[in-house]
Specification:
Helix 17 packs across helix 24. The strands form two sheets. Strands 3-4-5 form a three-stranded parallel sheet, with helices on one face. A two-stranded antiparallel ribbon has the order 1-2. By secondary structure, the protein is mainly alpha-helical.
């Protein structure tokens, strides 16, 4: 027994294969150096056409190289952690601290009360001492439906929680469990309780009693007063869940690249190895002191008993009046809330901003990703949902980078330089749009005009470009497949990588600039969690969903049409050239243009071949065709 008391509660391991990755990184670095030497030694003369296009391409490649360096820093030293729950339970079962869990919602239409309540019931069923578990439903929308749904949940939990514990139910969300479970007709005891629970969840019994008489977790509903003259900062008094760590509705090939497997399985452990992961909205547990603005001290020691043995001596009437003050819209006026206390305000990704501030106060974060996902969310089921979500994230991240809260400024001498660089991987999402748009548009238009921007296929300098492209993409594919993806899933992820950079990140970058100039204000956009049957069916069939007019779709369609026009023009020149000189001179540009055409096949299908309601609208087709033809005409004439 004494021997077990000395065993560690967790283990930390460095990722395997680091030497191979470092060798790969060295090869890519050498290839990039050769590309830069070529660019600088072959700059067209002032009188030659394409000089400025060449320089723009060089600066784009310079940016891509910097961003590659940042992602390499993230991947350089990932670490993985394992925990030993049996040892924790044996050693500290009676001393475990109280835990507050916030379930956040904002719109009863986009986030239906049934879905929210299923989430509440699932966290109430955690394998944790129930008397130390407090669940808060933070309703930013102040919905009556959500409130009364929670009342029903408080009754239903009296039988659902014992049912989960007795039969080790997985998953613990009632809706998810009964959707996937098989009725246990062969087990009389469980079959009887199964029927009881099914009746309750279907609402056919009004009274629910505690069948075992055990303590239930505390369940609290939060919703604050709102008035036009007081900015509510998109808060109901708790926090916003922005970044689900796992998803239960992903398709096999993940058509919208929403699984985030590489991020969760490699990049977040890379954050951990470089100094600690960033706060990503949900699936995070904080010490109370970190959110109260307290600085970390080496002599700090958590007083778990202080929080576990709290008692309230005030009368009910006094408590009611106190709660009214806390719930008022003016409670935080002229206080440190949103500055030093709680989550940071005035940023659409306040989770990341808050995490940076916490780390700069000396607190260390760690990343733990168990095999059985502890937090499941719903991934976007349409293209527009995914693009809008990333637009909000990229705008907020760039806002942090360009402000005094930038890790290089706020974190100077407070967090490691490698962690500051690691943050840039996300904070510079929006800035990626400029170089990507340039690379997608300019080489294609130069091909149309007959201006070469890459070495000839017979020139030895071409090997540097071919080597970097092939090796880098091969590593990307291997990385994606290693963490559970498929080849088609990787291709879909590459497509979404392009779409997000040319639309989501572009609009995020543009909105930030307009906000700084005083033309717009940031808005918190909620991603819908429900979809009608037709949308769900197309999503399950991995058919890309358009179906509406959007500036994002207009940009995607314009770029797709522009590249197909330039590609056809390039092929026409190659076919007409008997001596194959055109192919030798423009091979890389033709291949780049052809790759962009191939990756945009869903756009062409949505424009010209699909007739369902999810195809691209006629207005988008007209606008994109006009813009593409105009761009080609300007390039030629």
């Amino acid at each position: 027994m004494a021997k077990d008391d000395n065993l560690p509660l967790f283990a930390t391991k460095i990722a395997k294969g680091r030497i191979l990755f470092q060798f790969y990184s060295l090869l890519i670095f050498v290839g990039i150096c050769f590309i830069f030497v070529y660019r600088l030694s072959h700059i067209p003369a002032k009188e030659e056409p394409g000089r400025w296009a060449w320089m723009g391409l060089f600066f784009s490649e310079l940016w891509f190289s910097f961003y590659w360096f940042v992602t390499t820093v993230v991947r350089w030293n990932p670490i993985y952690r394992n925990t030993f729950k049996d040892r924790l339970s044996h050693r500290y079962e009676k001393a475990l601290p109280g835990i507050d869990i916030f379930v956040c919602t904002a719109d009863p239409v986009i986030e239906p009360p049934v879905m929210v309540i299923n989430t509440v019931l699932s966290v109430m069923a955690y394998d944790y001492p129930p008397e130390k578990l407090n669940v808060y439903l933070s309703d930013d929308g102040g919905s009556d439906l959500t409130f009364y749904a929670m009342l029903e949940a408080s009754r239903f939990c009296k039988i659902w929680l014992p049912f989960c514990k007795k039969f080790k139910v997985e998953p613990r969300s009632p809706e998810a469990y009964f959707r996937t479970a098989v009725e246990p007709l062969g087990e009389p005891v469980m079959a009887k309780e199964w029927s009881t629970v099914k009746i309750l969840i279907d609402g056919r019994e009004s009274e629910a009693v505690d069948i075992q008489g055990q303590t239930l977790p505390t369940l609290v509903y939060l919703s604050r007063e709102k008035r036009p003259q007081y900015h509510h900062h998109f808060k109901a008094g708790a926090m916003n869940a922005l970044f689900p760590q796992g998803f239960e509705n992903l398709t096999k090939n993940d058509v919208y690249g929403g699984s985030l497997n590489v991020l969760m399985e490699l990049e977040m452990p890379g954050f951990d190895g470089n100094g600690g992961p960033c706060y990503i909205g949900t699936g995070c547990f904080h010490r109370r002191e970190t959110l109260s603005g307290q600085e970390y001290s080496k002599i700090y020691k958590a007083d778990w008993k202080r929080w576990s043995n709290r008692s309230v001596e005030d009368s009910t009437s006094v408590l009611e009046e106190t709660c009214k003050v806390l719930a008022s819209c003016s409670y935080e006026e002229n206080t440190q809330w949103g500055k030093e206390m709680g989550l940071k305000y005035d940023c659409t990704v306040e989770d990341v901003l808050t995490g940076v501030a916490i780390q700069c106060r000396g607190w260390r974060s760690i990343y733990f990703n168990p095999e059985r996902k502890g937090f499941l969310g719903v991934a976007p089921t349409t293209l527009l949902q995914s693009l809008v979500q990333h637009k909000r994230w990229s705008e907020g991240d760039f806002h942090i980078f360009a402000s005094r809260h930038c890790p290089f400024v706020l974190g100077y001498k407070k967090i490691p330089l490698k962690l500051q660089l690691t943050y840039c991987m996300n904070l510079l999402w929006a800035a990626n749009c400029l170089a990507t748009l340039y690379y997608v548009i300019v080489p294609s238009l130069c091909l149309l005009r007959g201006i070469s921007l890459f070495p000839e296929i017979t020139n030895s300098w071409v090997l540097a470009f071919v080597f970097v492209i092939i090796v880098h993409r091969a590593y990307s594919l291997g990385e994606f497949v290693w963490f559970g993806g498929t080849f088609k899933g990787w291709w879909n992820d590459q497509r979404m990588w392009l779409y997000k950079r040319t639309t989501s990140y572009f609009f995020g970058f543009l909105d930030y600039i307009l906000k700084r100039l005083g033309f717009t204000n940031s808005a918190f956009v909620i991603t819908t969690k429900v979809a009608d049957d037709d949308v769900s069916q197309r999503y399950e069939q991995e058919v890309m969903e358009f179906g509406t007019s959007s500036p994002m779709f207009t940009i995607l369609a314009t770029l797709a049409l522009l590249n197909v026009l330039c590609f056809v023009s390039g092929l026409k020149r190659v076919i007409a050239d008997v001596e194959t000189l055109v192919w030798e001179q423009f091979a890389l540009q033709i291949l780049l243009c052809g790759l962009l055409v191939f990756i945009n096949l869903p756009i062409y299908q949505g424009l010209f071949f699909r007739k369902d309601v999810a195809s691209l609208p006629t207005s988008v087709a007209y606008q994109s065709t006009m813009f593409a033809l105009l761009a080609c005409a300007i390039a030629v004439y």
